[in-house]
Amino acid sequence: MLLQQLINGLTLGSVYALIALGYTMVYGIIELINFAHGEIYMIGAYMGIVALAAAAALGLSEVSAALTLLGVFGAAMLYCGAYGVTMERVAYRPLRQAPRLSPLISALGMSIFLQNYVMLAQGARDKAFPALIGGGFEVGPARVTAIQLFIMATSLLLMFLLHTFVRRTRLGKAMRATAQDRRMAALVGINVDQIISVTFLIGSLLAGAAGVMVALYYGLVNFFIGYVAGIKAFTAAVLGGIGNIPGAMLGGLLLGLIESFGAGYISAEYKDVFAFAILVLVLIFRPAGLLGEQVPQRA
Predict the structure, then answer these.
(1) Rounded distance between C-alpha atoms, residue 161 and residue 109, angstroms
(2) Which of 2, 38, 90, 281 fits as disulfide partner to 226, beta carbons 3.0 to 4.6 Å?
(3) What's the pLDDT tens digit per position in 97-121?
(4) Using N-to-C axis directions, what is the helix angle for 2-30 and 170-180, rounded to 10°?
């Protein structure tokens, strides 16, 4: 039982970590809580269904399951990336110099708009996602499915690639400079608007991948999944330290474990309560998070 809950928690936490990275990266640069980020994740799940249907219609799914899965992930991630960049240009960039409450209201408006847009376009009923990855094996009393291994391995790979990108590449260094002091970064020649767009792009790419993973894991998608997952990912970002990339990874994994053990040993009906209780406790006793928050310096 303990090992099974550990495996379930790590699987769920890997998804939360990917979504939380989008929250923490955006906040780390422009101090904005992008409450529409959960809807980007939801759109990724729907795009995965659309891409899978297109592959089946073209007969590609019969050629190679691995290539089909890669194509589904690629399509969902690129589609979500385009959504993220467009959202930044339309809803947030015009409000860059506005009072801080204005972009927050805009983010909430974008969240509601995207929820209703997807509901009208795709319908309010749940959509089924075919099981593309089957099988598994036993580890003592616990069972590890192939999809759980795939989610954990893919999430770790994406998080490692993001960490390497931010630490090793020229663009990643520009992102860190912008996060540290946006005005000084602009003075030394960094295109701050471009860096902010790239940040939204990367966060949305990761959210799109997370959406496909959840669709594969649960087999069902609806227009409301982005709201709950977004709030939990925000909790994970706060738990680890808002604006802190390693903190978002740690917070996501911890939140998944807390939710899994709470559901397994206390009550599955209150699994969402555990996440929000953690948010309240962190905000009261350690508002900077476990690894400390990282926000831009004010001019």
Answers:
(1) 32
(2) 38
(3) 888 889 999 999 999 999 999 999 9
(4) 70
